[in-house]
Every structure is written in C-alpha cells, then in structure tokens.
Amino acid sequence: MSISWSQALAWRMQRHFLEPVGNESINDVIRRLGAVLATDEDLAELAVGARRVQSRRGDLGQALTEGSIIKAFAFRGAMHYLSPEDGGAYLALRAAGRQWELPSWQKYYGLSAAAWPAFRESVREALKEGPLTTAELSALVTRDAAYRHLRPVFEEGAGTLIKPLTWQGDMSFGPPRDGQRTFQSLAHNPRWSGIWDLEEAGPHAIMSYFRAYGPATHDHIHYWLGEGLSAGRQRLEGWLTQIKSRLAAVDVEGETAYVASEDVDALMTTQPTQAVRLLPGHDQWVMGPGTKDQRVVPSAYRALVTRKANLVVAGGVVSGTWAVKGDEVVMVWFGKNGAPPRKSLEEQVDRLATMTGQPLRPTLQMSATFGPDMPRR
Questions:
Q1: With bands split at pLDDT 50, 70 and 90, how would you rate the model's confidence at 283?
Q2: Which of 51, 58, 216, 247 has the lowest tally of Cβ within 10 angstroms?
Q3: What is the pTM of this model?
C-alpha cells in the first residue's frame, strides 16, 4: 500500500478535526489529540478552538470547571489538558518511572518511599472538601508534624513535589481562584476513570497515537511516549510487539510507517488538501509528531516552531507564522511555498476574530527567509 505524504497529512488533518473543522466537544478534541499543552491558557484555547466550528474564549475554563476535561502534569513535566476518560492511561505511563523512589528524591524531600503512600493520603484528605490553593494545601498538610519540614517547599510552589501526586491521580489542577492556581480531587468527577493498569495503558496510548498521528513510525512512539512520558524504551518495544497485529504498514514515498488497521481504507482514499489553518505556538499538530519531523516542520523553520511561533499551516505543512499586533494579524508567508493563499488566510483571520472576541484585520508579508524579527506572538 503506497500513498504520498500530502495524502497522509490530509488524513491526519481529518483526524485532528482541522479539515474539515469539527463539531465535536472539547472533551472529544482533547481525547483525540491525547493531550493539549496548558502552560499558556490563551494558546490552549486557540488550539482547541481551531478544531471546533463554534468556539469562544473561556470555553476551556468552563470545561475544566465542569469536569469534562482535567489538567495535570504530564508530557515533559509540563501542564496538559487531558480527558478524564483517557488521561489516566497517560498518567500511568508517566508514573511508571516511580520518581518518588529515587534516593535523591527521598533525600531532598525527606520522604522515604515507605512514607510516600501516607503522604499521598494526607493530600487526598486535605482536598476532600474542595479545591485549595498551594498555600491552603500546605497549611492543611503540614499541620502533621511528619510533613512540617515541607513548608518551605510549598512556599516555593512545590512543583516537583506535586507532580507525582497528579501522575498517581491523587489531585489535579482546579479552576484558578483570584489569579492563583488551585488543586482539586478527582474523586468527585464522575467521568474520571482512574489511573489505568500499566499493561492496559501502554497499548491503549500507542494505538491512540497511531489513530491520531499516523502514519507514524516506532521512532514517533518513542518520542511521544518515551521522551514525553519517560515510559521506558523496553516497555514501549514490548507493547509495540504486542499490538503488531492491530497495525498496518504503509509505504509513504519510500518510508514505512504504520496506521491502525481499521483506518487503512479511509487513509488510502483520502485526497491531498490545500486547507490553511492558523494554529498557536506548540500546537499538537507539531508537538505530536515532534518538531524534528520534516514532513510537518521543514528543517529551515524548526527553530521558529521550537520557540513557540504561531503557525500558518497549509496542506499540513508549516508554511508561515502569524502574530496579533493591536487589531492586526500579521502573517508572514514563507516564499518557498509559492504564492500565498490570500483568501484562505483572510478567512482564517475572521475565524480567529470570532474565537478571541475582538475585531481583527489581516496583514500579509512575504519572506524568503526568516529571522528573530519575525512575529511570534
């Protein structure tokens, strides 16, 4: 079975709800993508909004409040939005490294591996009555003499101490309160499926990746789940062997890649697309396959993508950047990609205006090269 990369990326755009843009819920979008980076709320809103026909500023925060999505430390130690149904699978992979058992960890925090379960229980108990700020959580937990020495850690934000608590499902991020982050229990969220059994989580996460980011290689799996979640190369290879019968090999312009067997027919009949989309910096379109994937991110533009430039994507390939300056959306089209699709770009600016709730007008610039003066935000 042979296809072109333009076909492959067109199919992937369909799977990402980018072409056509979907009518699915926020939960559906995040569940399909696996995760959405949540370190910048505005960019997260745009990432999800780009994949939904109707989207308004604040939708993501409302979904978090309602519990249809959750927020936790996940890929590369950063905050991500996850679905409560599948999030426990990714967190199980992240927790598999058992960071809290490292001698350096135990020494730094003064918590032995044997004492860790009791500490987890104290945190769960503190969160029973509702979301707490870091200071409030600290006050309740460190009342216990066994944890009093952790007060300075909480005062500094407790980021590294808290991460394993989210990996193990003891807590997640709650809605902000007066500009402060809060933490909440997942026990009251009826959609929360809990932390998955590791041997079920691994194959599920891998298959989910092939279904959203295929055609993909084993290297892509090691990048996304290995480098991203520290799932372990040996574990991943074992799971890849386990699901081998559920995958189909596809020749994509001489490169062997894989998709879920159930997706082969749809992939083979997909036609290339010239669809243009304005995506935020570090969108899953580029973070999922990785910025080293030159089929999506031409090597000449990788530095821009890594530095979180907002992206103009055409036919699935990074083809320019954009930034909002006042009431203008300044778009830079890379001249290597031929004439800019002006009408499509203007339509995307209209969509952006609707999503952000502000009037915006397009300004188009051409660039044969790029540099640090290019707009990124």
A1: very high
A2: 58
A3: 0.95
